[in-house]
Design a protein that fits this description.
Blueprint: H1 6-11, H2 16-19, H3 24-28, H4 44-51, E1 55-63, E2 69-80, E3 86-95, H5 97-165, H6 172-203, E4 212-215, H7 216-224, E5 237-239, E6 246-249, H8 251-267, E7 275-282, E8 285-292, H9 324-334, E9 338-344, E10 348-356, H10 364-368
Parallel strand pairs: 5-7
Antiparallel strand pairs: 1-2, 2-3, 4-6, 7-8, 8-10, 9-10
Helix pairs in contact: 5-6, 6-9, 8-9
Length: 370
């Protein structure tokens, strides 16, 4: 270097007197930004001395005397004498730290904006998906209600019509049969409405859990004596190694869980197929299994098994609302438990429910059944 102005010397923290006679590359351009050596033959500053052309670099680093670096933009311009002979080069540079800082702030702002746009887009996509699911659920609900109400209403209409038309020709037993049919169909429609109302109460989070002491073994014996769970050809078997299992559960929720699982087992199992209800306890966990030899659940249906109004692909010719298992799952959740299903087509299905026997054992479920 033959000349350096005070402003440039101050930028690189060198006294002007110490710079004259030194190699510019050695003083301030000896290394890349990562600290690796910068070969002199690759240096754009000296390229002007080789080819006589102006070289502009918009992003590089120069080094101070104390070993720290700073970002620069510089131009290396060749100098020629009157005869056009190349005699040197003039290097002008500026510290672009502020520009880099501004660029970094702008880049961060762009990244933040892009992140917010992505988050907002994802929220909109989720909202749209939820709207589509709600629309599909509404369509399924309307279809289900129309389908499930049509048959009982037709049966009621037929029974009423027969009673009106043949009143004087029917025996008391025949009239009682028609009235019994009307009553059964009304009860079926009432059950559908009750299930829909239960789903609504669960989703509105207004359903309370009222725990009381329950002997689950005695509870299940009484349950299996009810008419809808009595099978004449092959009664449901209750299996339990204990004569009594005392728990603190909500009887209403427990009745709905067991009632729906047993009703499904009966509905989807041939009269000759076996159904068992087994109970056992492990530590403070009540384990309930409902096992049948029915039609089974297709693998593709298991993902949606506990969603409201979903029905299996092999159940189209069997009456049902698609609400029972959804209610079971949500009641099991309310009691702090979990439910698992295993099934094989035309071989049968097993539902396993695990419930904390006492309210203070709720936290043990996940660790005990993982």
């Amino acid at each position: 270097m033959t000349f350096i102005n005070p402003a440039a010397a101050k930028m690189i923290d060198w006294p002007v007197t110490e710079l004259v006679g030194k190699s510019m590359h050695t003083v301030l351009h000896h290394s890349h930004v990562d600290g690796s050596p910068y070969p002199r033959e690759d240096c754009p500053i000296y390229a002007a001395l080789k080819d006589g052309s102006t070289h502009r670099v918009i992003s590089d680093v120069f080094w101070r005397k104390d070993g720290t670096s700073f970002p620069v933009e510089y131009i290396s311009t060749p100098m020629k004498d009157e005869d056009g002979t190349l005699i040197g080069a003039v290097v002008t540079f500026q510290d672009i730290s502020q520009r880099r800082w501004a660029e970094k702030i702008l880049e961060q702002a762009n990244e933040d904006l892009e992140q917010k746009i992505q988050e907002r887009t994802q929220k909109l996509q989720r909202a749209n998906q939820q709207l589509r699911e709600l629309s599909e659920m509404r369509s399924r609900f309307i279809t289900m209600v129309c389908h499930e109400f049509r048959n009982p209403l037709n049966n009621i209409t037929l029974s009423v019509s027969s009673l009106k038309r043949y009143d004087t020709h029917l025996s008391l037993a025949e009239k009682a049969g028609y009235l019994s049919s009307i009553n059964a169909n009304v009860e079926r429609m009432t059950q559908i409405i009750d299930d829909i109302l239960v789903i609504g109460r669960i989703e509105a989070k207004v359903l309370e859990v009222n725990r009381t002491k329950v002997d689950v073994v005695a509870f299940c014996r009484r349950l299996l004596e009810e008419g809808e769970f009595i099978r004449q050809s092959d009664p449901i078997k209750l299996i339990c190694p204990s004569h009594s299992i005392i728990t603190e559960l909500d009887e209403r929720l427990l009745y709905s869980i067991l009632g729906n699982l047993l009703a499904n087992a009966i509905r989807y199992t041939h009269a000759s197929g076996a159904i068992t209800l087994s109970l056992r306890k492990w530590k403070q966990i009540l384990i309930i299994k409902v096992q049948d030899e029915g039609i089974g659940i297709a693998l593709k249906d298991r993902k949606y098994l506990f969603e409201p109004f979903h029905r299996g692909c092999n159940t189209s010719n069997i009456p049902g609302t698609g609400l029972g298992l959804s209610i079971v799952k949500q009641f099991v959740d309310l009691l702090g438990g979990n439910i698992h299903v295993s099934s094989r087509i035309n071989k049968g299905t097993t539902f396993t429910v695990r419930l904390p026997m006492f309210n203070n054992s709720k936290n043990n479920i996940s660790a005990s059944t993982s």
